[in-house]
Inverse folding.
């Protein structure tokens, strides 16, 4: 029975196949299938569209927040308490107050702790140009922070693919937070402005962008100079955490007074005030989110504000986002001393009983390993507690020993430019140490030129050294006898070219792990020539 059915089916299939091929050509077949597939694709697209609209209709605020878990409920449970105007101080002026909704013109305003899942424009936002006199709540912010889809996207990134980078930012944050926040508050800006530095550089004084922006606050040279920062061959104050913060505060205050909105001020900090003004003009709106949605500003700036808010939310509650094992760096603490021009940082390090790199990390604005030769009485930062011993030791060092120099005799006439290139130095260095010479000078036979020994540090130093900042910031408790000669003690070693921790430990017959521990080293770390290592006692 089954056999006969099979034969019957096989015969009919063959018969229809024969008939099909007999009456239809190949072109007709292709056309037929094309029409069928086109109608099917239209039907599928229609089904997807209807289904999507149905879901959105059920929940207009649809947003994937499953990754937030406990954190979301933490914020939703917070109360928006009201406070009177007497609890607030004004910044320099109150922009756009006449445009505020009527409910914000009376004596009561929302607290500065403000989280909202919806997108809220400036005119729907409480007046955040007030700054609390008292210390803010650990659960609140004194900047306009909201929680929306864009912010959630960056939270997801910082806790996912970008977790490694954000963890590094958190490690550095404690080192500079108190110092920078103090400057910000002194200038009557919201102290949570510090999160702008976090997304700009991850709190790294050595950060350098492709566009040439440098330092914690990422100033480009022209803007840095406009706000009083010195940027030349010897010094780049964009990398100075203190001076650059004063400059950033001035810039942000001007932007805020100009736009009347922190969101627009932050966007202006990223893109420049001119671009934001043009965007406002095109959009005919001062609502940052509307301007961003309509793409009147570039992508980087559109992402800048939600990125800052995401950083603020995570940093305020790192444990709730899984950052539970962060090794925070020690606070940026230091002593200050005045030193003469053209003083070698290695001499300063030796006199303060520390190493060359520790001094440079405290003074990252110095570009050539010495204090600028054209600046009298330069202020240098030393490790906390080392001022007295430094002054005692430094006073014993003769002036001619504070910088290593060499004298070059000119055997035939040569231009200063060619001479500098031949000697591996620069015109700026030669003219700084030879006051009679100018950039276009020609050196004559028989003349002599002074050239200092400079050390230009590796710009990537922090990548290798930044974990050790806290440990390197400590100093030896030993003291030198008054009037004694400056020298390296028997339990210290100056690193030479080609040295590594293993060879140094073997040379001094000490345990490698103890050597690394006492100097804050880790496996794979490089040690640089000139660094002073402490040798463990046997």
């Amino acid at each position: 029975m089954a056999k006969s059915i099979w034969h019957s089916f096989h015969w009919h299939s063959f018969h229809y196949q024969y008939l099909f091929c007999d009456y239809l050509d190949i072109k007709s077949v292709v056309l037929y299938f094309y029409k069928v597939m086109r109608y099917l694709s239209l039907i599928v697209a229609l089904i997807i569209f209807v289904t999507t609209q149905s879901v959105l209709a059920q929940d207009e605020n649809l947003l994937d927040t499953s990754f937030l878990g406990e954190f979301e409920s933490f914020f939703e449970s917070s109360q928006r308490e009201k406070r009177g105007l007497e609890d607030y101080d004004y910044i320099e002026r109150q922009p756009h107050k006449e445009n505020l909704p009527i409910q914000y013109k009376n004596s009561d305003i929302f607290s500065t702790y403000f989280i909202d899942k919806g997108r809220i424009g400036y005119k729907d936002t409480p007046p955040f140009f007030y700054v609390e006199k008292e210390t803010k709540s650990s659960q609140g912010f004194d900047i306009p922070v909201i929680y929306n889809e864009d912010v959630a996207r960056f939270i997801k990134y910082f806790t996912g693919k970008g977790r490694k980078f954000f963890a590094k930012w958190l490690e550095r944050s404690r080192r500079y937070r108190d110092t920078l926040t103090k400057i910000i508050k002194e200038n009557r800006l919201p102290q949570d402005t510090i999160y702008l530095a976090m997304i700009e550089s991850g709190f790294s004084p050595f950060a350098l962008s492709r566009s040439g922006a440098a330092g914690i606050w990422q100033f480009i040279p022209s803007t840095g100079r406009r706000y009083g920062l010195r940027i030349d061959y010897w010094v780049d104050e964009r990398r100075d955490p203190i001076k650059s913060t004063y400059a950033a505060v001035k810039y942000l205050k001007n932007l805020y007074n100009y736009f009347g909105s922190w969101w627009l001020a932050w966007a202006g900090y990223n893109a420049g005030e001119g671009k934001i003004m043009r965007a406002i003009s095109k959009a005919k709106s001062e609502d940052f989110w509307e301007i961003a949605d309509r793409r009147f500003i570039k992508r980087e700036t559109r992402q800048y504000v939600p990125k800052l808010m995401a950083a603020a939310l995570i940093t305020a509650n790192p444990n709730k986002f899984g950052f539970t094992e962060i090794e925070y760096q020690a606070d940026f603490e230091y002593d200050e001393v005045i030193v003469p021009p053209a003083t070698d940082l290695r001499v300063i390090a030796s006199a303060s009983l520390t190493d060359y790199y520790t001094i440079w990390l405290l003074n990252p604005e110095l570009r050539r390993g010495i204090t600028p030769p054209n600046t009298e009485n330069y202020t240098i930062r030393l490790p906390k507690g080392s001022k007295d011993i430094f002054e005692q030791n430094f006073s014993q060092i003769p002036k001619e020993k504070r910088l290593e120099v060499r004298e070059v005799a000119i055997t035939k006439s040569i231009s200063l430019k060619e001479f500098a290139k031949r000697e591996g130095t620069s015109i700026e260095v030669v003219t700084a140490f030879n006051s009679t010479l100018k950039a276009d000078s020609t050196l004559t036979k028989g003349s002599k030129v002074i050239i200092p020994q400079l050390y230009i540090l590796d710009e990537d130093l922090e990548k290798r050294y930044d974990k050790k900042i806290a440990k390197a910031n400590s100093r030896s408790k030993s003291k030198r006898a008054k009037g004694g000669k400056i020298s390296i003690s028997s339990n210290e070693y100056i690193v030479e070219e080609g040295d590594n921790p293993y060879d140094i430990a073997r040379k001094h017959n000490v345990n490698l792990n103890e050597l690394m521990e006492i100097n804050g080293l880790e496996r794979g770390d490089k040690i640089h020539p000139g660094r002073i290592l402490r040798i463990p006692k046997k």
Notes: The first helix runs from residue 2 to 23. Residues 5-23, 55-139, 458-490 have pLDDT under 50 and may be disordered. The domain at 488-538 is CATH 3.10.350.10 (Membrane-bound Lytic Murein Transglycosylase D; Chain A). The chain has four domains: 2-58, 69-329, 405-452, 488-538.
